[in-house]
Amino acid sequence: MRRRTPYVLLAGSLFAATAAMAIPVTPDPARDSSTNTIKIGWSHTTGSNGYVDDTWWATRGRCAPDYLGERLLCDAVGYLARATSRTFEAKVSDDMGLPLADRWGLMTAKNSPFIRSAHIETPLGIAAVLGSYRAALESRGWTENDDAVVAPDRAVIAFTTPDGPALLRLVRQDRMTIADLALRKPLAATALIRPAPGQAKLLLGNKTDEAADITVNERTIKLAAHAGEKLIDSDAAADKLPDSQKMDLPSGRYRVTLKLDGNAATSRELEVAADETWGLLVGPEGTLLPLRLF
Q1: Whether residue 276 has pLDDT greater than 60
Q2: pLDDT in the model for residue 82
Q3: 207 touches 283 (CB < 8 A)
Q4: Are strands 200-206 and 277-282 parallel, antiparallel or unpaired?
Q5: Full domain range(s) for residue 71
Q6: Structure confidence at residue 284 (pLDDT)
Q7: Same domain assignment for residues 165 and 63
Q8: Rg (CA), the chain
Q9: Helix %, strand %, coil % for the chain, to 5?
Q10: What's the pLDDT tens digit per position in 150-192?
Q11: Which H or E element spans position 17?
Q12: What is the CATH number of the domain that holds 202?
């Protein structure tokens, strides 16, 4: 009996565990949140002139379990993802000298000889995001200019900083707040990817193994797999894109549609302003990554 007891207990434990894996659970938005998984990318380029160009991007995905066993796995993955996220946020914030809004689902950041920028997409409302940025930027010695525009669905605030002029733009769309914070450096006048006067420039690339079609302003650009993926690496790499992957646009908000081979089309909006250059990169799983380059 003694020899068989451990096996009986083991068999019972395995049976209980197997049964638990199959127990249906009710989705819990507070628990099964959009922060349970994270994907991170980083690019570091050193030019012949010694200038350093760093780019970061990250996306968070939702772990939505249907069964108890899946939820237990989601909890474990989520714990690791949140720890990774905190380390990543601290690294980006320290290197960039820019704060990041909370509960972001997508973020990109750039630190080049010409600009420091961070793009964040978060479900938090504009008032909450604006309050956190104002507090964080004031603590960094930034001074808010007098011409701020604040409305329920958008905010545009210019800052004077010890390192140069900066701008914070918040836009509410699709139940998300889009936060763009950028500080232009003195070397910006020498950038190769400056837009035409009074225009914005959009550069397109594809980091995936699939061909992609991107439609902006009723113009469709076909991108082969990995076409233009190095546009995020440096000003020189972005400048070398073929003209077919560059667009000059008036200021405004544009509907951008992405179609990957074998997948349904997805759409989002992108707001650009005069004298800005943006990269739009097709990232993992067909996620569009907007990145302020100038």
Answers
A1: yes
A2: 52
A3: yes
A4: parallel
A5: 18-189
A6: 83
A7: yes
A8: 22
A9: 25, 40, 35
A10: 999 999 999 999 999 999 999 999 899 999 999 999 988 899 9
A11: helix 5-21
A12: 2.60.40
